[in-house]
Amino acid sequence: MASRYDVIVIGGGHNGLVNAAYLARAGRKVLVLEKRYVLGGAAVTEEIFPGFQFSVCSYVVSLLRPEIIRDLDLPRHGLEILPLDGTFTPMLEGQYLWRVNDHAKTRRAIAQHSRVDAEAYDEFGKAMLAMCHFVKPLLAMVPPDPTSLDPRDLKKLLFLGKRFQSLPAEDKYNLVQLMTMSAADFLDQWFETDVLKATMSASGIIGTFLGVRSPGTAYVLLHHYMGEIDGAFRAWGFSRGGTGAISNAIASAAREAGVEIRTQAPVAKILVKEGRATGVVLESGEEIKAGSVSSSVDPNLTFLKLMEPSELPGEFVEEVRRYKYRGSSGKVNLALDALPNFTCLPGPGAHLRGAMSISPSLEYMERAYDDAKYGDFSRRPYIDIVIPSLTDPSVAPPGKHVLSCFVQYAPYKLREGNWDQKREAFGDAVIDTLAQYAPNIKEIIIGRQVLTPLDIERLVGLTEGNIFQGELSLEQLFFLRPVAGWARYRTPVRNLYMCGSATHPGGGIMGAPGRLAAVEMLKDGSGKSN
Amino acid sequence: MAKKDNVVIVGAGLNGLVTAYYLARAGFKPIVLERRPIVGGVAVTEEFHPGFRASTIAHTAGPLLPVIAREMKLEQFGFQLIEPDVRIFAPAPDGRSIVLYNDPAKSAQSIAKFSTRDAGKFLEFESVLGRITQFLSQLITLTPPDIENPSSADLFRLFKVGRNFRGLGKKDMQRLLRWGPMAVADFAAEWFESELLRAMISSRAIFGTATGPWSPGTTAVLLLRAAAESHYAGVASIPRGGMGGLTQAMAAVAQKAGAQIRTRAEVAQITVKGGAVTGVVLAGGEEISARAVISNADPKRTFLKLLDPVTLEPSFLAKVQHYRSTGAVAKINLALSGPPQFKALQGASNGTLSGRIHIGPEIDYIERAFDASKYGEFSRRPSLEITIPSLADPSLAPAGQHVMSIFAHYAPYHLKSGDWDSHREALSDAVVETLEEYVPDLASLLLDGEVLTPKDLETNYGLTGGHIFHGEPALDQLFTMRPL
After folding, report:
1. What residues contact B20, with CB distance under 8 A and at least 6 apart?
2. Taking a C-beta distance cutoff of 8 angstroms, is the pair B129, B226 a contact?
3. Which is nearest to B24 in space by CA: B229, B315, B259, B323?
4. Average pLDDT in the B291-317 region?
């Protein structure tokens, strides 16, 4: 019996939408089911206070794969990336570090702290660029299985080995270090200025339950370095209209290709018959049949909530349970009456247009982690701040602003109490920390939204509030993501696929998992109704 | 004095002595030059209080490769290994304890007092780790391939390793790949629910390192050590006469094979001419020419102190400078007037104390101890690894009296305030106070003690940064990346 749909995609986040768009472009009839009233998952714009548009969860863009932008012609569908220029790190003693995209300026800024570091900064940039060029193809590659003897896997492994061998000796050395060292140790080799190392190391810990001194964080540093806009590495930007506009652009491209999208359609169960996915049941009870099911939600939801353990091999279920989420970050979104005024650089300068980073020293960063290790939120957290309304005035009423704080650490599992009791205390810790650097902050807040990892889980369904659908730690990357032996978007259930950030190459608004999953599904001939 | 087949070995540590033996056997004329009055490096037995002798630093015959002991025929030169039945005794402050024996079934019984589930898992754990460490042990006896230009022999060896890797079977291969980068705290928690057991297993991974149980990559260290020692819980074997018993025998074997060993002969400089080594100059000014110099000293000492930096390429030099070798462990040797009474044993020790004793009842306890070291402080409540060698080897102390040998984690080389001379006593107090929770009568038994801070390990034993393993065994500093 022919189904109405070739493929049902569970979840209308950016990966689900990318997956759907690619499948539809290949002629499949696709239905996307989204639980919420709005599309985008964690890449969503919402009006939290009247007139103020917030990129509620994910707030900057850089990793979105250029081939996806091209293939889906996203600019035509409304995608517009506005550059986010520079990172400003205020310090308490009246000093600051301000790095901008203008290389000469940044060098001068660093030279004020250390001349040696200003020299090293150039070399570092070149070395990271070389690493990015090596790692980039991996992002567009379906991971090979090193435990398999399949010639296709061996060919890929050989390809990786050859590429590695062809690197200059220095780059090989750097690469092995990047894969294994801590961000702090890695940066210690290059620089002496504490605040510079601290701010740079921050990208090594985002989305992990690790500190800047934890081995393996150097890789995450690279993961964030790979951001690319219009061919320029390490460029970050805002999407006009907030990150939700990215999701909307992808949705528009998907619809144009024939994808049907239903919001407020939460899936209750994946239908499995004789080891084969046959469709889904909605919470409303409605049953929808399809040739294949592609899940963009995380493995915990896909396999442990939407399925019965008996439908899966016991060992697989065990591995899915082992997969680590451990959300470690929260968001504080503020509606502001005026702009914050930093003590170390007063007034409304260009420094407010970029990212502002509360990361004054490596010790500060590591102590923030120590709090979380024992089940507390950081009293003095690392905060990454942006004020998108300065670049894109459409997101706030005239003269007013939206300010978004990404805050780490806020562990999902608290040692004492629960997040419902501690939400406001967490929000206060963030505001108090900000007030140390920009004392006027408390007077200019007219609205405050605090999102704990628990809230992120409740709101967008990310298990334990992990923004990447699972920690980006070495044992959960590449051919180990999410489960060894099942890193190629397939699952033990035939015609059931994974296409979310819990698959290679992981999280961030990248879209690569959605695209690669579509490629694999099409290879299987899957999705073609019988 | 110039001899064409002279080979100079700098330092008569365990590795220097082994090298000397193999070279002498192959017909070279090795000259081992040792700065201190005795050979052995960190594997020495010294008197620290009249009548009390301790293995000053290393206290168990840890990863001594059996093949080396066999080939050197050490037993014929007085080397005897005492192998206790107990590997680890781990007491908790509440008076309970876990004992790991050589016999897994006996260990499982001990674990069952905490959790029957863990006791069941334990046997599976033993066999899985046995298989995986057997595979890994091949890597240890292998000269690491050159990462830049692997030779065809390298490739062949790697191919063999690859084939054996596949021989593990899919499940074990996946386990190995996934486990390596993990934090040992996660690894232990995947297997067991008893906190004391988790902490005990983790303690092996962090021993002698500047990492805590929550540091990623510590599982790899656990597995590699397990491969070297053929057991994840390590070896509790103690040479008769302490570690010096082992190195003295090695020196005797090496000398008999034709090696020359000179003590009180400190190498001040390795001389280089035209990019090639020509010999060494001793601190007294004596010059010894050699066709080759082999350094048993750590890389920083070798390349930054003994060699003139201009002889090295700047990029190589930079790598040496970045090699991480600041230690975070201190050694404390105590002279006791009687056998220590552990609360957890209620008087009846029955050999339980003759293996290694682990103090550090929870993962978070060890991690908090580690936290202090990150900020340049020593742990107020340290994690301890203890042996009481005099229980099995009465020759080390006067009759009825005992030597307690303690590794204390963590004591960072760089202190945030003050220096180690002004903190030595406080460190020793912290260790004794910690132990008193487990051995209430300790203070009344205490005759004397010797405290070796990382600074002392550097000054007295030549370990740069005071690192007992010549550098941090982190993933980026192992195998083909070790040292550089």
Report:
1. B9, B12, B30, B32, B254, B257, B259, B261
2. yes
3. B259
4. 91
pLDDT digits (tens, 9 = 90+) for A42-70: 999 999 999 999 999 988 887 788 899 99
Chain A residues whose beta carbon lies within 8 Å of the beta carbon of residue B315: 170
> Are the CB atoms for A490 and A482 separated by under 8 Å?
no
Residue B283 CB coordination number (10 Å): 12
- Phi (first) and psi of residue A45, to 5 degrees: -110, 130
User: Which residues face B316 on adjacent strands?
Assistant: none
- Record the tokens describing residue B476, joined without a space: 């980026």
The residue length of chain B stands at 484
- C-alpha distances (whole Å) from B198 to each of A375, B99, B194, B423 are 19, 13, 6, 31
The bridge status of strand B238-239 relative to strand B81-82 is antiparallel
Please state the separation of Cα A15 from the chain's center in Å: 11
Q: Sorting pLDDT into bands at 50, 70 and 90, what band is A507?
A: confident
Nearest by CB: B174 against A147, A215, A473: A147
Is the C-alpha dihedral spanning B335, B338, B343, B344 positive or negative? positive
A61: which DSSP letter? B
Digit-coded pLDDT (tens) for B20-29? 999 999 999 9
Minimum mean pLDDT range among A15-24, A237-246, A341-350, B160-169: B160-169
Q: What is the pLDDT of residue B4?
A: 61
Rg (CA), chain A: 23
Closest to B325 in 3D by CA, of B456, B470, B481: B470
User: Cβ separation of B374 and A479 shorter than 8 Å?
Assistant: no
CA–CA gap between residue A31 and residue A24 (Å, rounded): 9
Find the length of chain A.
Answer: 530
Q: Do B214 and A373 touch (CB under 8 A)?
A: yes
Phi, psi of B146 (to 5 degrees): -75, 120
Phi, psi dihedral angles at B411 (to 5 degrees): -135, 95
For chain A, the distance separating the N- and C-terminal CA atoms, rounded to the nearest angstrom, is 8
Check A214 against B177: CB less than 8 A apart: no
Q: What is the SS3 assignment for A480?
A: helix
Could you tell me how many CB contacts below 8 A there are between chain A and chain B?
85
Contacts of A485 in chain B (CB under 8 A): 170, 174
Q: Are B322 and A189 a contacting pair at CB < 8 A?
A: yes
Number of H helices, E strands in chain B: 16, 18
Inter-chain CB proximity A366 and B180 less than 8 Å: no
Contact A147 B166 (CB under 8 A): yes
Matching residue, tokens 């960072």: B412
- Distance, C-alpha A489 to centroid of its chain: 18
pLDDT at B170 (0 to 100): 84
* B292 Cα to chain A: minimum distance (Å): 26
Distance CA B303, CA B48 (A): 32
The number of beta carbons lying within 10 Å of the beta carbon of residue B203 is 27
Query: How far is the C-alpha of A343 from the C-alpha of A440, rounded, in Å?
Result: 9
- Report the candidate in A240, A323, A278 with the shortest Cα–Cα distance to residue A495: A278
Mutation pick from A187, A220, A319, A475 vs chain B, by most beta carbons of B within 10 Å, is A475
Alpha-carbon distance B90 to B353, whole Å? 10
If one counts every other C-beta atom within 10 angstroms of the C-beta of residue A442, the result is: 11
Task: Give chain A's contact residues with B (Cβ, < 8 Å).
Answer: 146-147, 149, 169-170, 172-173, 176-177, 179-181, 185, 188-189, 210, 213-216, 315, 322, 324, 363, 366-367, 370, 373-374, 473-475, 479-480, 484-485
Q: What is the pLDDT of residue A530?
A: 40
User: What's the angle, vertex CA A169, arms to CA A164 and CA A170, rounded to 5?
Assistant: 110
Average model confidence (pLDDT) for chain A?
92
- pTM (2 d.p.): 0.91
Contact state of A147 with B177 under an 8 Å Cβ cutoff:
yes
